[in-house]
Amino acid sequence: MKEALEHFRYHGLPISSGLPKVTIAVHVTIERLLDLTTPALSAGLPIPMPELVAEDWRALTAKGMESASQSLGWAAFAAGFQGLMVPSRPDPQGVNVLVFPESFTKACRLEVMNASELDRLGRAT
Q1: How far apart are the first and last CA of the chain?
Q2: pLDDT (tens digit per residue) in 27-57
Q3: Is 100 in contact with 86 (CB distance < 8 Å)?
Q4: In whole angstroms, what is the distance from residue 85 CA to residue 70 CA?
Q5: Is 60 exposed, middle or buried (0-12, 13-18, 19+ CB in 10 A)?
Q6: Count of alpha carbons within 13 Å of 88, Cβ hemisphere only?
Q7: Which H helix or E strand runs over 96?
Q8: Which contacts of 31-35 are long-range, i.e. CB under 8 A and separated by 24 or more positions?
Q9: Top-confidence residue, 40 or 2
Q10: Distance of alpha carbon 96 from alpha carbon 87, whole angstroms
Q11: pLDDT at position 103, please?
Q12: Is 90 helix (H, G, I), strand (E, B) or coil?
């Protein structure tokens, strides 16, 4: 939830304007995940992970620039990874999992676990 509301915090908007939120669970099966939460792996990056996490990618994007974290994501995608696991900026204990469905093979799956509940929410009762 902290991640989902980060946009509101960043722009100084009231958190209440971002609510309510619908939380869903997904089950993801992929073959190639780049796990940048692993210290030994992230230690080999040209920019330290704390700097990547702290980077203001929104400000850079607004200036027409690409952030280092976005470049890293594009590099993982270009290298054939199907997903990326990275630390969360708003929640130091949290982790974000990004998936690249365009890179999925027949063995990969992304399944919404509570799809029937989402369908129910979309209908007037």
Answers
A1: 27
A2: 999 999 999 999 998 888 999 999 999 999 8
A3: no
A4: 13
A5: middle
A6: 14
A7: strand 95-99
A8: 31/82, 31/105, 31/107, 31/108, 32/80, 32/81, 32/82, 32/83, 32/103, 33/81, 33/82, 33/83, 33/84, 33/85, 34/76, 34/79, 34/81, 34/83, 34/84, 34/85, 35/85
A9: 40
A10: 6
A11: 95
A12: coil
Q: The tokens of 89 are what?
A: 């900026």
Residue 120 burial (10 A CB sphere; 0-12, 13-18, 19+): exposed
Structure-token match 């270009």, residue found: 78
Stated pTM of the model: 0.78
* Cα 124 from Cα 106, distance rounded (Å): 36
